[in-house]
Amino acid sequence: MKALLRIFRPSRKLVFIIAGVALLGGVSGGAALYIGKGKILGLSAETMNGLSCTDVNLVTIKKQNRVWIRKYIKTEPTDGMTRVKTALRVAKAVYDAQKPDLVQVVVLDTNGPTLRSDIRGRAIGADVVYIPHPDPVLESAEAKTYTARYYDGSAAANGLFFGERVDLPEEEITALNASFKEYSDCIDPIAVAATKGGESKDEKREETKEEKPAEGGGHGSAPAAEKAAPAAGH
User: Fold this and answer.
1) Which of 13, 63, 107, 229 has the fewest CB atoms within 10 Å, i.e. the most exposed one?
2) Do 220 and 120 touch, CB atoms closer than 8 A?
3) How would you classify the pairing of strands 102-109 and 126-130?
4) Nearest C-alpha neighbor of 124 from the set 180, 211, 56, 173
């Protein structure tokens, strides 16, 4: 038995080599796990709620006892899904603050147009409509609480987006909303300029209309089943 153990007993040098490899592998694996987890958590924290954004224009439409808000915002270049996340987050933040009957958030590129007459078609990188209580607002059994769409391509230098238009199913929108950790609005350039004692170059415009909203189609408007919803820039 002793002879057998002597045959299979590894040398001290071999033991050191095996131990070193195991230790190095354990440290490397642990470091990789730590770095990988930190990176994933960092990216998740950065993109989970979308990007920071800036207000461009705000339109409040009042009809009888209903209030519809359409908000135009802009973000730095990013992918279509992140633009949708940003719009969903902002829509919920606007609702929490003002409790309107309908909120529409239109996402533009940082180099995109700022005049409402130019905000249409491929100038709209993402478009979200949030109707917390659709039945009394739209009087339609087919009305949805959320609709969201985006162009999956990036924006050109002129702020127009490329790629195919993607309409998200409501269950996916619901899942995105459930993943948010907080609902924050965009930066108001006028408020920022006021705190600095100056005027903003990119002045945000606010409009209030006491009239029936225009009906319209296209990417920047509410879905066809929600004809009562205001159209964006059409």
Assistant:
1) 13
2) yes
3) antiparallel
4) 56
- Pair 72, 54: CB distance under 8 Å: no
Query: CA 151, CA 166: separation in Å to the nearest integer?
Result: 6
pLDDT at 207: 66
Structure tokens at 112: 């995109």
pLDDT at 173: 94
Number of Cβ within 10 Å of residue 160's Cβ equals 18
The pLDDT value given to residue 163: 93
Chain segment 117-129, per-residue pLDDT in tens: 899 999 999 999 9
Mean pLDDT score, 176-201: 76
Classify burial at 213, counting beta carbons within 10 Å of its beta carbon; exposed 0-12, middle 13-18, buried 19 or more.
Answer: buried
Domain positions in the chain are: 11-47, 54-226
Residues 6+ apart with CB under 8 A from 1: none
pLDDT score recorded for residue 182: 85
Pairing of strands 205-209, 54-63: parallel
Classify residue 83 by burial, with Cβ atoms within 10 Å: 0-12, 13-18, 19+: buried
CA 110 to chain CA centroid, Å, is 15
Tokens representing 39 are 């990176």
pLDDT digits (tens, 9 = 90+) for 56-87: 999 999 988 889 999 999 999 999 999 999 99
Strands (DSSP E) along the chain, which ranges? 54-63, 66-75, 102-109, 126-130, 146-151, 165-167, 205-209
